[in-house]
Amino acid sequence: MSRTGSRRRSQETGAQWVAGMEFAVPILIVIAAGFLLGSFGAGMKHIAPMRWEAWWLIYSLLSLVLFPVAWALLAVPSLWEVLAAAPGDAVAKGMLFGALWGIGGIMFGISITYVGVAITYGVVIGLSAAVGAMVPLLQKPEVVSSPAFPCILLGILVMLGGVVLSVYAGVRRDQQQVAAGKQICGLKTGKDFRLGLVIVAICGAFSSVLNVGYVAAGPLAEKARDFGALPRNSGFAAWVVVLFGGFLINGGYAAFLLTRNRTWHTFRGPGVGKAWSWSMLTGLVWFAAFGLYGQGAALMGEMGPVIGWAIYVGLGLMVGTVWALLGGEWKGAAGPLRIMLAGIAVLVAACCILAYANRLPRGLPSQDAAVLHTQEGAVVWTVAKS
């Protein structure tokens, strides 16, 4: 009896440990992705002496085409067969949403010239977190009646509150710097400012559809699993399509500017080697962030694109703020800095709420979802044992 009891306790302990790892591993992967998302922008301070459009074309080609395809070829067996066998409407929708996201990225730069960096960044991040999480959530009507739904909704609302505080802090900081005689990009007044708010709202809505495109291209991930891809890797097949749609816009716009401005020659010349290096590194970090997010979201299960996306974007905003603080961008703005720190605290609370929501029941899964969950549990168990 003692041996049987000991074996049973050992099995229960092992089961609890596996359950804990099933919860912790996806969250940790998304946290790592959020850190990279908040850090990749540092490379954009190293464009000179290359022209922006030349730098952007290199960055776009690497981050949206070459790195995604290379990673997918390693992670997804028979990638080209998967793409050929995938439903045409899923491929078209994925590319369409990727292209819309690409338009949002271009409008981001335009928005800054009207309303400044703080408002543009805050509105885009806020809408990206909210719309990017809510659209996939509303596509799962069975979740609305589940115990997890109120917690997910609360987490998204709290995150929006943190974003609002962050935007307000940034605006206050810019106002103080203008009063001190510093020049701030954007911050127009009157009709131009109102026009800028419209542009930044459209920009934020378009920027949020990247995650919607990932959900729309879900059949590609299912097809990748049919060809033997692990559940945590299957999403890379979807990302290849979605990000290529984004490249068509970003790369096309950069090529247009290179032609109009006659700046193709800036790819070479004295000192451009450093710009090449920073462009490639920035592209790698940006896609690594998305690659990790995709794995974390897959391991979270069917609600990964909802909970994981909100945590990912919120952490990106927090990490970016910390880098700005370390870079001296908040020097001499003690009051706005306190507001920003309060916003970060609210964002941390939102991430904790959403992480907790990921542990709550989400209604009765379908048979396919149950099989997928079992497969994902096996993946986590494999990772944990190794």
Task: List key phrases describing it.
single chain, 386 residues, mainly alpha, 13 helices, 0% strand
Strand and helix layout:
Blueprint: H1 2-39, H2 52-75, H3 79-85, H4 88-138, H5 148-179, H6 190-207, H7 209-216, H8 218-226, H9 235-260, H10 272-300, H11 304-326, H12 334-357, H13 367-385
Helix pairs in contact: 1-10, 1-11, 1-13, 2-9, 2-10, 4-5, 4-6, 4-7, 4-9, 4-11, 5-11, 5-12, 7-9, 8-9, 10-11, 11-12
Describe this structure in words.
- The structure is a single chain.
- This protein has 386 residues and is mainly alpha-helical.
- The chain has one domain.
- It is 80% helix and 0% strand.
- It is built from 13 helices and no strands.
- Helix 1 runs antiparallel to helix 10 and helix 10 packs antiparallel against helix 11.
- The C terminus is likely disordered.
Low-confidence stretches: 14-20, 364-386
| SSE sequence, one letter per element | HHHHHHHHHHHHH
Largest sheet: none
Which percent range describes the beta-strand content? under 5%
| Count of distinct structural domains | 1
* Structural class label: mainly alpha
Shape: globular
Q: Over the alpha carbons, how many angstroms does the gyration radius reach?
A: 22 Å
Distance between the termini: 32 Å
Give me the count of strands: 0
Give the helix tally: 13
Helix content: over 70%
Q: Averaging pLDDT over every residue, what do you get?
A: 78
Task: Characterize this entry briefly.
This protein has helices at 2-39, 52-75, 79-85, 88-138, 148-179, 190-207, 209-216, 218-226, 235-260, 272-300, 304-326, 334-357, 367-385. The chain is mainly alpha-helical and 386 residues long. The longest helix is centred in the N-terminal third of the chain and has 51 residues, at 88-138.
